[in-house]
Protein 1
Amino acid sequence: MIATHLHNDTVVNVAQLLKARVGAVRTVTVHLDDLALDQDLEARNLEAGLKFTRIASGILVSGEVTVTSPQVCARCLTEFEGTYVESFEAEYWPSIDVFTGLPLPEPTDDEIFVIDENHQLDLREILRQVAILAQPIRPVCGPDCPGFQSLLPDSEDIADARLAVLQALLDDRAD
Ligand SMILES: [Zn+2]
């Protein structure tokens, strides 16, 4: 099995794998020091352990991404660095036939990625998407979180709900 390691790079030439029989596998590991996830969101030390499998339509990329990113604890508001793991699977289709050089139809499903005309498969966008998915909705700094806000769970929500009821009453009277 061919193994490839990418360091601060996301592009793999897959011409050989596209020429291989369906079911052929290649392993790819990636390390990125930094990856911009969004305008103000950055991930560090992204590690990906991936399997590229030749499928009839192209290449199936599957595996696991581990990523570290700055977080603010949802309970105590402490800033910390969290490390998260996310698995994924994505299909890549060739844009030209590797044997004939003829153009192939573009995928109509926008979840399918395209391999460029030089048979270069770029992992950057899928790694960015998976790293965003890996981000917790409510990050917690750790088992030692003082969590003083957790003593009053959703107290703000309750207060908002009460205010809403009060506001509705006041509105009724105004009518
Ligand atoms: Zn905390």
Protein 2
Amino acid sequence: MRARDGFLEWTLRADPKVGLRHVGKCMICWESCVDTRSADKARDWCLKHVGATGHTGFQVSAFEFFDAILTDHPSVNGTPPT
Ligand SMILES: [Zn+2]
């Protein structure tokens, strides 16, 4: 995704080492697990929370971290740094 801001053009770049993160959250007490790469681990946390609290309403959400970098940055356009 790119956007132009005045004379500068920016692009968003996800960090492939971090990847998509998942969080399980209780909709009763709003407690949530630490974000994890695995959706199954986030759901496992929800099941453990049911056992510990009896709470039965949950949400699993996914998110991704991005850096905004200038489009003419060497790591975006493939040209070696000068
Ligand atoms: Zn809860």
